[in-house]
Amino acid sequence: xxxxxxxxxxxxxxxxxxxxxxxxxxxxxxxxxxxxxxxxxxxxxxxxxxxxxxxxxxxxxxxxxxxxxxxxxxxxxxxxxxxxxxxxxxxxxxxxxxxxxxxxxxxxxxxxxxxxxxxxxxxxxxxxxxxxxxxxxxxxxxxxxxxxxxxxxxxxxxxxxxxxxxxxxxxxxxxxxxxxxxxxxxxxxxxxxxxxxxxxxxxxxxxxxxxxxxxxxxxxxxxxxxxxxxxxxxxxxxxxxxxxxxxxxxxxxxxxxxxxxxxxxxxxxxxxxxxxxxxxxxxxxxxxxxxxxxxxxxxxxxxxxxxxxxxxxxxxxxxxxxxxxxxxxxxxxxxxxxxx
Amino acid sequence: xxxxxxxxxxxxxxxxxxxxxxxxxxxxxxxxxxxxxxxxxxxxxxxxxxxxxxxxxxxxxxxxxxxxxxxxxxxxxxxxxxxxxxxxxxxxxxxxxxxxxxxxxxxxxxxxxxxxxxxxxxxxxxxxxxxxxxxxxxxxxxxxxxxxxxxxxxxxxxxxxxxxxxxxxxxxxxxxxxxxxxxxxxxxxxxxxxxxxxxxxxxxxxxxxxxxxxxxxxxxxxxxxxxxxxxxxxxxxxxxxxxxxxxxxxxxxxxxxxxxxxxxxxxxxxxxxxxxxxxxxxxxxxxxxxxxxxxxxxxxxxxxxxxxxxxxxxxxxxxxxxxxxxxxxxxxxxxxxxx
Lengths: 340, 339
Known about the structure:
Chain A is mostly helical and 340 residues long.
């Protein structure tokens, strides 16, 4: 019988761990079919090849168009851990592209990803959290995550996870908090973040302070923060050696001290001297947040009195190169020297 | 000359059927009769060139078997036609083949040998029987190792170094491709990471700005709220004070007015009461009520009596007058009657 194969021997399989990629347009559909096969090795090889291909945005678009997402969602529940790990990697690569993120929201991949929250294999969880974080960076994605009710679960996972996963969760929470804070507050996020503020790792401290900043934005958050005595901890963090931590702590302070309660708590915790030190820091974020915090504290009469002695420091900042710092310093000086 | 097939082959492939079964050729005369040739039927043996089962044509396209095992009737017809045509063609070709012309009248063709050495022709072929038998008591000696006789010529070849190809030159393009692809991939990945890092940097800057602005907005909101509340409070207080003042003034005015109003209240009360008769002289009252009542009643009675008397008088007068009238009328009538 005539056959399309030229020789009886198959062409040499160079990389046994990857499925051979067909030419041109046929590559992704073929891999898609292989993903649905019963044989474990075929699936693993197909996933490995897909993982390499998806870096390219055109291939990512093709992948989504040919509907690989259904197969990938099914493979997330596969029994083999290598398959799951590769699937999460592929999903992470897809979420880096915008079309991927849109497709995730349309096909409700978030819920399937959420099933992996209790995954025993570490690397799968890391990839899954990285995917969620990438997804939350843009607003519809964050809204999707909030709608799926993942925020309380993430908050609950926070104390018990590995350090690097904690960092990723804190980032995800930071973006989700921009959309909706009440869910996080309801699950007691503030007390958990309080512990994290004193963690050994720099990244965790700064990210926890950043998440706190997000929580403090609505009024209930500010009240909770004052009630749980977080402000003294934040003041202590202002003296931290690492500028990111100090910057984020100053940021949280600047938002939390907007209420009168917050102001007095901060003044009681002697926040003004470290803030004045931070104003002269070379890092833009640090000095900007410090100036803003000083501005809010100057609204209170006691604060104003104390700060009248230090107006010179702020006035020196008014010739700074960055425009926002100039504006912030001007506002601060104006508020301090205001007479009712 | 075909040999008889060994029996093993037939048992292993039981379903194998021959299209043209190998057979030993029969004894036949050396020179065939042209008449006997035509009697041979072509279907006794199968020619592989005309076997339907052998694929001919292009080997790179697939041969699709017909769906039904029965050949199409059209196919059968076509094949029959083809067969008929082939037979006709063969017959025609035979006829066209040049033969020796027919013998002239009175003569007959006869075969003649024209070779150098004449051969005796006869139907029977010369045969001789030969027999051979090993000695019954002699053991067959072991067969010596069969070394086939050397045939052909010896030849030697050797590939010297550098004769086939120069590895370094040949490997260059392959290496270039390899390294090029690897570096390209690496560059792509590095660029991706750089891009990501740039994006993150921009994001950070944006976030700082955003946070600062957010804090500013909230602070200003708060300030505004506080100022407004303060203003409201003060205004409310002012209003309270004013209200209280007004109330006190009103109270004072009311008091003064009331006092003034009530000042001549008592004399006026007394005068009013007196006017309405609440203070009375008892004797006067008594006279007025009892005495005058009796007086008036008495007067009434008296007057009634007077009226009664007058009425009686009137009645009397009337009666009299009526009687007189009657009398007068009677007199008149009498007068009239008598006159």
